[in-house]
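ERR on first pass: missing label on line 2. Operator R.T. fixed the label and resubmitted. Corrected input:
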Amino acid sequence: MTEPESTEHETPVQDDTIRKEDPPVSAEPEPARSSAEPRSLAGAVTPAKEKPEQTGHTVTLKSVDAYYGEQRAVRDVDIEYAANRVTAMIGPSGCGKSTLVRCINRMHEEIPGARCEGHVLLDGANIYGSGVDVTAVRRAIGMVFQKPNPFPTMSIYDNVAAGVRLTGRKDVKLDERVEQSLRGAGLWDEVKDRLGRPGIGLSGGQQQRLCIARTIANEPEVIIMDEPCSALDPIATLKVEDLIHELKRRYTIIIVTHNMQQAARVADTTAFMLMGELVEHAETQKIFTNPDDPRTEEYVTGKFG
Amino acid sequence: MEAGALTTRDDLAAAGLAGSSRGRLADPAFKWFLTILAVLILAIIVFFFVFLINKASPAISKFGLFGFTFGAEWNVSKSVYGAWPLLVGTLITSAVALVIGVPIALGAALYITELCPARLRAPLTMLLELLAAVPSVVYGLWGVFFLIPKLRPAEQWFADTFSFLPFVGGSVAGPNYFIAGLILAIMILPIVSAISREVISTVPAELKEGALALGATRWEMIRLAVLPYSRAGIAGAIMLGLGRAVGETIAVTLVIGNAPQIGKQIFDQGYTLAAVIANEFGEAANNKLHSAALIAAGLVLFVLTLLINAIARYIVVRGNRMRDIPPPEEELTMPTTGPLIGGPVMQ
Amino acid sequence: MSDVPANALAPISARRRHTDQVMRAVLLIVTLLALVPLVLVILRLLTSGLKAISWDFFTTDPSGNFLGNPGGIKSAILGTIEMIAVAALITIPIGIGVALYLVEYGKQGRFAATVRYFVDVLTGVPSIVFGLFVYVALVVGNVGGSGFAAWKGALAIALLMLPIVTRSAEVVLLLVPDGLREAALALGAPRWKVVTRVVLPTAAPGLVTGSLLAIARGAGETAPLLFTAAIVQGTSFNLNARMNSLPAQIFADVGQAQDRLVARAWGAALTLVTMILILNIVARLVARRSRST
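pass 2 clean. output:
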């Protein structure tokens, strides 16, 4: 059961950035979960094999708290991440944005003594429900980390295939999936001749795109990116940001960033957090030009941060 | 001259740090003194070789280097000294030690680092280290009076039930290869597990997080992120354990039977390079050839441990180098292909 | 909003879950397995060793009789203490000295690298080879006017302890912050004073810990003593003659058919292990106290 496509943020972000048109969402529906049909990720629209099904995936948080032991780092957050949209989480260091997103893919609880409370719903299903397998949640909600972390002893091919191999399903054609994922990450042409080479032999930006390929090879519904460009130089950052525009056709994307310009460039909506609370969540343009909350205004105008 | 509060000689003297004319000589003297100590270390090793080769020469010249090392018979009464049965015994017991000890040591290292609750980590570590505090002679004592009698029925059962396996079968001797290997396994547990633990704990957290974020179970995370990253270090730990097992003398000589033959099966008595030296030393005192043969055996043992340690070092260094290839310079090209057709995004 | 997982959250395959559970259990079991020998040895030491312990046990020498009263282990205890003390006196200053050279002067140079390599090599040498070396170098030639002698045994143990002391001292000395050295040098202190007045005092607890652990290691060694100090019944303070020691005494008693001798071996073993444990505990306490200051 999925919630209907959110209609709050209809107007695309208007700014003077040159951007490809976001295609209508219905043209690229997600294939059904159990289908093993290869999806073409070449960036073009090939509706022939797509199932004309529901569209994207939403993530809804209700009254979410996050604790490190007794210390509450995130308080009472309600937020909805619309399907096939990019939402940026911004805020000063320590405001809890990374902690919050790690509650979404249940990585927060890996820290000893840490826990999340409240409801986190993926298409209406509570991922903290009893009987929910945490590893299934993490397959469905992928994560790209701040520091690119390809597995150093594995080749490029094996890195991309790593998540897929975990599921061990025999019906997946690995070569195809790897190629699709690398294309989807904009890395195929650069590495297609050296798939067998070690993953860490790539440059920083390529490594990050490799990690993105690895994540999308797993066919997640949502992708969380935790400051994915902060370890990259400007050129690599550019490439990754362009990638995000492509990726949101297929995935719901949540990006944590401390770089407001980046949020302005890539995000449809932006959420501002301060000291563990969600202060404001609105269209990116509104956040940066006309925010409702004075604290948001102070932050985006650089009065602190 | 007078620049600040702490530059006068009086100030320096008050701080106890002033130099003096004596001090100016003391510095180089001190340095040379320490350097000489360092040279001492090199000298010791060189002397080792020189003396050992010298005293072993009667045996080596009589049987030849290869003849001695690979000579098939070690028979004191016939004055025939070939180290092959000793080498084989050393290798068999060490192999048993590794086969039994390494999985346990590695498993314990993995458990302590990755799985066990944080407050148990220190106590478990300390307990494992206690294994190393027990001296070898005490392990030997325990082996003779506890392990050998207690395990004999089980060994006999095993030999009878699995006699179709190679090297298994026949009647079980009290002291034998297997018991020696078992005790060696216990003795190498602390070192293999301690080094493995160190290596495993240096796996970067982001690698482990990356594996978990893909939806890996805990064991799958260990398999994907921890073990491949640590494999060179773990290989080094294993080699160091092997070196320890090869050189262990007292515990082995008490539980291996000291029979100068190559046993036919795992529960036979045997001999090792180290055990022969400890065991026959007394009776060889007046026999020049015998003494020389024992010293030659010691030399073989020495060279063997040198080799093992050198290999250990090589494996670790090379393995880590392969894992840590630094990434090349970032490419300074603008994107021109793929989904980026349509122009780069500009501010 | 429901708690029933949607298709996306379908649980992972049973096979993966089973593998995970099985491997976790295996690792736990294996860890416990590793501790089993420790428990068994300690239990046996206590049950068999305590029986032999008595005041007489510690105050009489082994009598060397096969029948009748076998005597105690007084000479063994004293011999161990004497020889280890001598060994420590030799090896700790030299070991720390070499470590000082490596850290303060040699650093990354070629010679220092060679020395480090050789120290590494020494670490891997079996203890019996050390004994053999001292035997051929000193015992055979009756150097010092004696064949087997306690000081030669102490020397063999000192050689064995040397790489341990050097290695641990080097680690500890490297932990002394460079800032301290630089501050002292900037005040005009000569290098040797920086080392003796600043570096060594700062590193002292760690050096003590390392030395105690090396001593604990040396106290348990048998093989180097077999053909250097050998074994003798009587208590002796003559370093230039044979001397008894706990490990040698135990080794000699193990092979005996006599129950009483075996009992003495267990008592001696318990004593030796207790001494080693005490050294270990003291070493750890020193380390912990220095860390908290």
